[in-house]
Amino acid sequence: MFVVITLLIVLTIIIYINFIGKYNEKYWKKRGVKLYEDNKILGIYWKLLTKNRALFLQLSDIYKQYAGDPAVGVASLFTPTLYVIDPENVHHVMHTDFPAFNHRGFIVNEDDPLSDSILQMNGVRWKLMRQNMTPLFTSAKLKNMFYIIEKSSRDFVEYLKQNPDKLKGDTYNTLTIFCCKAIGATVFGIDTKPEIISPFFKAIRDSFRPSLWNSTRYTIMMASPRLFTLLRLKQLATFKTFFINAIKQILRRREQENSRKYDFADICVSIQQRGMMTDQDTGYELVPTDELLAAQGFFFFSAGVEPIATAIFSVLIQLGKHLDILQRVQLEIDEIYRKYDGQISYDAIIETEYLDKVINESLRLHTPINFIIRHCERESVLPVGNIKVEKGTKLYLPIRDFHLDPKYFPNPHTFDPERNLIQHGSETVYIPFGKGPRGCIGVRYARLQMKTALVHLLQHFNVKTITNEKQPSFICDIFQLRFKNIDVKLSARI
Ligand code: HEM
Ligand SMILES: *[C@@H]1O[C@H](CO)[C@@H](O)[C@H](O)[C@H]1NC(C)=O
Ligand SMILES: *[C@@H]1O[C@H](CO)[C@@H](O)[C@H](O)[C@H]1NC(C)=O
User: Fold this and answer.
1) Between 20 and 30 A from 107 (CA), which of 194, 226, 271, 451?
2) pLDDT in tens, 66-92
3) Is 440 annotated as a binding residue?
4) How many angstroms separate the alpha carbon of residue 148 from the centre of ligand 2?
5) Which of 107, 112, 120, 206 for mutating ligand 2's site (highest number of atoms within 8 Å of CB)?
6) Cα of 183 to ligand 1 centre, how many Å?
7) Which parts of the chain span the membrane according to its record (predicted)?
8) For residue 450, which of 352, 330, 337 has the smallest C-alpha distance?
9) Would you report the helix, strand and coil content of the chain in percent, each value rounded to 5?
């Protein structure tokens, strides 16, 4: 009897799984789109969960295997999911028909206040929050806060000089600690000594540590949003008490001080003093509570740590391999130092054109965020292939795969700062910060922070890349690029 029941259950499961596969095949066939063969039930999530294989590597497999197709279906239980490959279609999703694709489709359950950030918000709430945070990132604001960015870079160099053991390796880790200090100072006015590993750093680092559970939770959110809501899964609940309390303290202290620091905390205080945030078009109102502002701060913090550290690290990797380029960068920096008498101002940073090219090319070759996600809010038709996209569809869009496509960038694995990166007009395929209304809000800050750190670092140090492998390998992660088996050594310039 027991054997029969077990057999029946197994049989039912097999038939059901088969059914999901057939359903997905049919669904995409009807729309003239191929389904990614590798797994017709869980697509790219299958190897993420069972083989610990980074999502972006699997998207790359698809990109190469279906190079001629405008978009490819990816199984995700019963949630229609599409990897959009044609640049015109990508532009349609990110820009032309923005109202249809203005979501990422992330879900924030109750009791998970830190996840309620611009990244994950939707609709009019997102628009309102984004509008209110945009003033933080204008050129004028960045100019005002440049003194903080500059000082943290100078302190970092000083710290490295006094701790020569930090020059020998584990440079990515050292850079993340530095970036955390820098963003903490610029965003919140938190001033810590470089050698102190702050509790903020611990929270940020732990929250984005890849793990099987994190991958599972992400898979559930993408493949079965309903189950994600039903199970009330939370993303950042562990850090809620610590971070919200810290923000509360910062804001209350700032309210009492009269001096302006031109940072995020200032903006928060003035938003709260104005009372309600109101959307002009719809009249929708949102209360800027400490919790809501803490969520924005938490995300700015995390976006400012690992992505920027990875971006700086990949520049150093390239310079440590191409000594001629390193010398040219250093020559440019030396000239700027001479011209400005060692006082590195905002204008001085803007003048480093060759370094800018080096950064741009490095962001192409190893972009910190590998792909983009959108969620369809109302039916739309992708122009190339005439593909009808239904409400509720999840879309993946390439960043890294565009950047490494020889069709757009000949010899894509060659590091060449003289490349013309922006050659495809509005359908540009060079998008390290995404594009359109949901593109990265922090792009100017990120570039300024990177450049300032690199100017100071390369003025004082030479770099050498150490690796045992021809091609870098990567740690399994969902969104971010994380290098494995590669390091950079610094040595004092004489
Ligand atoms: C090198 C560093 C960084 C890279 C490569 C990067 C890249 C990206 C990318 C690719 C997106 C998605 C864009 C899209 O969906 O079209 C994004 C979104 C975002 N980034 Fe960044 N980012 C960086 C640093 C930062 C920093 C420092 C901040 C804030 C202080 C920031 C804040 C945001 C926000 C708030 C969003 C969501 C925007 C929205 O949905 O409206 N990023 N970023
Ligand atoms: C991801 O997993 C690690 C290790 O299990 C955990 O510490 C971290 O909090 C998780 N990330 C999130 C966002 O919850
Ligand atoms: C680097 O890229 C940015 C953004 O794509 C662009 O505005 C800038 O002009 C580029 N810099 C150089 C020196 O080409």
Assistant:
1) 271
2) 998 999 999 999 999 999 999 999 999
3) yes
4) 31
5) 206
6) 14
7) 6-24
8) 352
9) 55, 10, 35
